[in-house]
Amino acid sequence: MILDRRLLFLAASAAILGGAASAAPKQPELGVRDGKVITVDGLKFRDLDRDGKLEPYEDWRLSPEARAADLTQRMTLDEKAGQMMHGTLPATGPMGVAGMGSGYDMAKATPLVIDRHVTTFITRLAGAPAFLAEQNNAIQAVAEKGRLGVPATISTDPRHHFQFTAGASVEAGGFSKWPEAPGLAAIGDAALVRRFGDVARQEYRAVGIRQALSPMADLSTEPRWPRTNGTFGEDADLVGKMTKAYIQGFQGGDTGLVANGVSAVVKHWVGYGASAKGFDGHNSYGRYAVFPKGQFDLHVKPFDEAFSAGVVGVMPTYAILQGVSLEGTALEPVAAGFSKQLLTNLLRGKHGFKGVVVSDWAITNDCGETCRNGFPAGVRPGFEGFSTAWGVEDLAKVDRYAKGVNAGLDQFGGVEDTAELVAAVKAGKITEGRIDESVKRILVVKFEQGLFENPYVDPKAATAVVGSKTFVAEGQAAQSAALTVLENKNGLLPLKAAGRKVWLKGVSPEVAKAHGLTPVDDLAQADLAIIRAATPFETLHPNYTFGSFQHEGDLSFKDGNADYEAIKAASAKVPTIVSVYLDRPAILTNVRDKAAVLIGDFGASDEAFLDAVTGKAHARGKLPFELPSSMAAVEAQAEDAPHDSEKPLYPIHYGLTY
């Protein structure tokens, strides 16, 4: 019987691969700690279940699909439920529950892997490459001890950029630093974006990260939205082009994931950028996306480019979409992760997506008082009681899991509630056959990436790869290129630095000296000022977890703003170069008249910035979104329509050359 099953799986694999199984097998490198290796036909295989026999799922000669099918039927329901959780690797320290700390908390991580069978996790650790590689190996060694030896897939939010926001990105640490996504769009070069993805792929894999919870294909059509900084802007065609190139770089292939690729999860399906009044869906007050201009199809458009690139995963938005109908029926008023209309009918049906659908974080958690109404006055908001179960807040947790799976989810982000999923199956709310579909999809990706052969990485190699001189130089050149010149009065750029006495704000004096400038502390002694400023914001909801640190509200410079006061003081005495970090589309109406040079910044070091200012590098960015002229214009525009504010100060795709 064992031989018959072996022949059946070999035949199935050959059919899937179009006969490729007949080619001479090439022995892969195996990574083993406490496990066993067996030899069959002169070839070596990991004995993942330690039974001394070569099971089909252990046989790297078979196709990923055949191996996934075999492994799924060997799993208990509890083990299958574990595969459908995308947990958080706990860390030591006060923010350990959110995965931030001085290392993984192995006492907490081990039972998640061994007892709950969770083998997909987000990491939020930052640190030296060798350290991250060693931490990966520690987790993989635990996973190797599981009953079936299923390796861990470790994912991450973006970590190659300048802005660090909990829940959206990770501190870059030793990784090469590149402009934010709008900066890549400002350059507009698909080949460069694919190169960035390829560099990130190499750096991720070197430390054991195999999944990128990115890119964002959302259109940032609402200027006040705090997540604009993670998008490629508001031009659907440009966003689609950038999204496709990004995925191809990370996954390593033109139309899908290759063995040494990092699987990409495109997000957020769909319409997240049309958030009502720009408030974000991490918060109950920001749970709606609205479509007053009927532009829903435009928000879908960039995702088709992700599908053409063979993206492995899709993450639905938190938002409840208002004003949208599909096939003549209004959407059920629930978050996209619970919407069968959006996930099964539109995503899998109309758009033919066959990969893994992973929910955004915490959509099945109970939503109590602090989730709905924020923390009491005087209490610092934390992650206790955090939930994003919009539209299903009053369902029992088991019913949230059932509704999500039946809507089309394969995996639940940020949770490890395996017992709830098991209970839903046992209560007849989900069929085990439906569970099997999701588990197979998840396992296929692990097999495609070779994790079952070798999930371990070399800390020394990680040190050599991550943050290499070549990668750092490429990132810095992109930072300079993304800078977008909005004003260059009297041809001041490129700046002739020699002999210039310069007053600085937000710029390192040491870097200025290295570029031939002479920093002075007194404006009266300067003949030039350089100010690096940031887009203004308000904290309108300080009693909510994410509202306490997200940038909301007013985008305009006002008296009392420290950057604006510096701009006024400097420009009254000397020509002033002003750079504004555009994490959202700033209103620069009362800055433009004061600046001799005005630059939009999408993430650049002082070195990259001054390289461009002095002409050592060439700033060639074009705005990926328009810059409005007033808050009145922002408030009058439609959340779902791109670049539609009245009389924008700078139109989309604007940018000067020099």
List the helices and strands and how they pair.
Blueprint: H1 2-16, E1 36-40, E2 43-47, H2 64-74, H3 77-83, E3 85-88, H4 106-114, E4 120-122, H5 129-144, E5 153-156, H6 181-187, H7 190-207, E6 211-212, H8 236-251, E7 263-269, E8 288-290, H9 296-308, E9 313-316, E10 320-322, E11 325-326, E12 329-330, H10 340-350, E13 356-361, H11 369-373, H12 397-407, E14 411-413, H13 418-426, H14 432-448, H15 459-465, H16 469-482, E15 484-488, E16 501-505, H17 509-514, E17 518-520, E18 528-534, H18 562-571, E19 576-581, H19 589-592, E20 597-601, H20 606-613, H21 631-636
Helix pairs in contact: 1-2, 2-14, 3-13, 3-14, 4-5, 5-15, 6-16, 7-8, 7-15, 8-9, 12-13, 16-20
Please characterize this protein's 3D structure.
The chain has 658 residues and is of the alpha/beta class. Among the domains are: 2-58, no CATH class; 475-636, Rossmann fold. The protein is built from 21 helices and 20 strands. The strands form five sheets. Strands 3-4-5-6-7-9-13-14 form an eight-stranded parallel β-barrel, surrounded by five helices. β18, α18 (562-571) and β19 (576-581) form a beta-alpha-beta unit.
What's this model, at a glance?
The chain has 658 residues and is of the alpha/beta class. The chain is 33% helix and 13% strand.
Keywords:
alpha/beta; Rossmann fold; single chain; 658 residues; disordered N terminus; 13% strand; 21 helices; 33% helix
The CATH architecture assignment of the domain at 475-636 turns out to be 3-Layer(aba) Sandwich
Largest sheet: 8 strands, parallel, barrel
What's the total count of β strands? 20
How would you state the average pLDDT, rounded? 95
Shape: globular
Distance between the termini: 75 Å
Low-pLDDT windows of residues: 1-21
CATH class of the domain at 475-636: Alpha Beta
Overall structural class, as computed from helix and strand content, comes to alpha/beta
Treating each run of at least 4 consecutive H or I residues as one helix, how many helices? 21
